[in-house]
Amino acid sequence: MTLLRTHPRPVNTNAERWTATDAMDAAGLQVWDDMTVEVALSVMSAARTNHLVVCDEDGRYTDLVTRTRLTAARNGSAYTDRVRLRDIAAR
End-to-end CA distance of the chain, in Å? Predict the structure, then answer.
């Protein structure tokens, strides 16, 4: 197992207004866009973070999702346990 060391950086407290540059500069977890909302919320809880950097299958940044945004999607009327992060980005 390879251990990863991250270097803390200043956290933007207004994560809903982040730019792509902010997301790339942020110390955060990168996840695939095919992850379900439920799994993403679990990852956030375990990592004690309020955002995830979402990448496509080529490893390119596609979105930044926050706990607030995922919770709102989960509480929406169109939500099922099969909703993926890429579906949230499309909204």
Answer: 37
Pairwise CA distance, residues 31 & 52, whole Å: 7
CA distance 59 to 62: 9
16 near 66, Cβ under 8 Å? yes
pTM of the model: 0.69
| Helix axes of 37-47 and 67-74: crossing angle, nearest 10 degrees | 140
* Nearest Cα to Cα of residue 65 among 42, 89, 43, 48: 89
Distance CA 80, CA 74 (A): 8
Tell me: the pLDDT tens digits for 35-79?
999 999 999 999 999 999 999 888 888 889 999 999 999 999 989
